[in-house]
Amino acid sequence: MTADSSTSLEPRQPAGNPESGYWLSFNPHASEVAHQFCGDNEIPGTDCPNCMKPLLRILSLDARDVRVNLDPARIPFVHLFYCWTCSIPFGEFSYKIEKDGSIKTVKSLSEYEDAFGSDGPYDGYMGVFPLCHVALEPISDEDQQKLCQWAESNEGDTEDDVEALDRLATPRHQVGGYPFIANPERTSCPECGQDMPLLATICDDSTGNDPWGREEKVSFAGNGGVQMIFHLCRECSIVTAYHCCD
Ligand SMILES: [Zn+2]
Ligand SMILES: [Zn+2]
C-alpha cells in the first residue's frame, strides 16, 4: 500500500483523547492521583433509566490528573457508567455530566428482545464490585506505536495484523490513545453531532487487568472477550458507551 492510499481511507477507530494511552495500575503509589474504579458512589441521577437499578459505576476519572486532559473547572470528574441488567448493552447509551456533577441520560435503548433481564449476564451476578483505587500507567512508546498502527489501519483485522500486535491483541483497561478494540465503532455526539473521541476501554475484570484468568463473579459480563467502550465529547460533557465482543 502506498502512503497516499493509506492516508485517504478512514481509520478503523477514532483517535483517543488524551492522545497518549495509559493502562490502569491497581497498585497506585501514594504520590499519584488515584481514580476510583467500581465501588459505591453518591453521584446523583445514576439510577438506570430502564431497569431502575443503580447504574454500575465502572470508573471515575479525576481531572486533577492532568494527563486525562480535562478542564477541572468544567468537568471535575468523568464517570463511566454501564448497566448489565437491562437492554442498555444492546445499543448506544449516552449521558450528560451536568455542571452540578449529576448524571442525566440522553440516549438509551429501552427494549430489546434478548436482553439479559434482571438476573444479569451470568448466574449469580450481583452487580456489586468493590472499590479499587487505580492510577494511570503510561504505555511504552513502542506499544503505543503498534496500537496506533493497528487503529489507523483499515484493511480489516487479518491474521497478520493480529500477529503484529502479539500480546497487545487482548482486551485491557485503557484510558486514551489507541486501545485494542475487537469491533470498534465510530459515534457522533447526540448533542453537537461531532465525531466523539475515544476516552477509555474497560475489559471484563473488576479487580485487575486479566479478563481471562479470574473467577466469573469478579467479571462484569462473564466473558473475557467483552469490552465496554467509552467516548467523550468534552464540549458537551457527554459520554457515549457501548460494548463489543471478540
Ligand atoms: Zn439497567
Ligand atoms: Zn458534543
Task: Characterize this entry briefly.
Helices cover 10% and strands 24% of the residues. The chain is an alpha+beta fold.
Number of domains: 1
End-to-end C-alpha gap:
27 Å
Low-confidence stretches: 1-8
**Mean pLDDT figure:** 90
Task: Kindly report the spatial arrangement of strands forming the biggest sheet.
Answer: 4-3-2-7-1-8-9-10-11-5-6
- Report on the biggest sheet: 11 strands, antiparallel
**Helix percentage range:** 10-25%
The tally of beta strands, per DSSP, is 11
- Ligands bound to this protein structure: zinc ion
Q: What is the overall silhouette?
A: globular
Account of the protein in words:
The structure is a single chain. The protein is 10% helix and 24% strand. The protein is of the alpha+beta class. The chain has one domain (3-244). The chain has an eleven-stranded antiparallel β-sheet with strand order 4-3-2-7-1-8-9-10-11-5-6, with no helix packed on it. The longest helix is centred in the middle third of the chain and has 12 residues, at 141-152. The radius of gyration is 17 Å and the shape is globular. The two termini are 27 Å apart. The site of one zinc ion (ZN) has 8 residues, from loops.
Give the SSE map.
Blueprint: H1 3-8, E1 22-25, E2 35-37, E3 56-62, E4 77-82, E5 93-97, E6 103-107, E7 132-138, H2 141-152, H3 159-165, E8 174-175, E9 198-202, E10 227-233, E11 238-244
One zinc ion binds at residues 189, 191-192, 194, 233, 235-236, 238.
